Amino acid sequence: MAKWLEGIEGLVGGGPGGPKRVRTMRWLLVIGGIGAILMLVNSFLSFQAVPSTQPPDSSTTSDQAAFSGKGSSDSDSFASIEEPLENRLKDILEKIVGVGSIDVLITIDSTEEIVVQQNQKESQQITDESDKNGGKRHTTSITKDGQVVLYETSGDQNPLITKRIKPKIRGVLIVAKGAENGTVRRLILDAVEKGFNVPVSRISVVPRKYQQ
């Protein structure tokens, strides 16, 4: 191989500027050899793209949760109270004379309120002061402190519940077939008003559209 290379250098190096052309040829051969080695290495190695580990955008996640109906637990707790009330009222109203198919929507202001027993401690301090000009000042300071009463069952401590306050109904919407009749509409209003203790101003009864 050395003789072959010397022969090429002899042909290239002839004439004026020969040594310079020889050096250029040597560099070209070196670069070509490096390129050939890289091509061989690349043929034996394969590269795989690494997936990005960047966390998903929080705004996108929240939007997906909103559209999928997975909201906060507050919405679920409201629905768990409203839906049974709607179903119960629908079953009752459908039994009224003149009422056909019906849809009911009930909204509430809050969930059930629980009142627990507390040990109340109250202290009172009265202070009378007089200044040099004869003025008097009477101050009464009252301090209240309460501690929840707990009872134990099977090793677990739970608060002692004294009262449960049902949720207050904000409004009732009723779409009923037959509500276009004044008598039927008054019967529906009266049943809801007395059954749920809701004022008439919070009850809306509208006739249902007849399907053709």
Task: Describe the model.
The chain crosses the membrane at residues 27-47. The protein is of the alpha+beta class. The chain has three domains: 2-44; 67-112 and 166-207, GMP Synthetase, Chain A, domain 3; 116-162, no CATH class. Helix content is 40%, strand content 30%. The protein has five helices and nine strands, in the order H-H-H-H-E-E-E-E-E-E-E-E-H-E. The chain has helices spanning 2-12, 18-44, 58-67, 73-93, 182-196, and strands at 102-108, 113-116, 118-130, 136-148, 150-153, 156-159, 161-165, 169-176, 203-207. Strand 3 and strand 4 form a beta hairpin. The longest helix has 27 residues, at 18-44. The protein starts with a helix and ends in a 5-residue tail after the last strand. The model is unreliable at 46-50, 58-63 and 65-70 (pLDDT under 50).
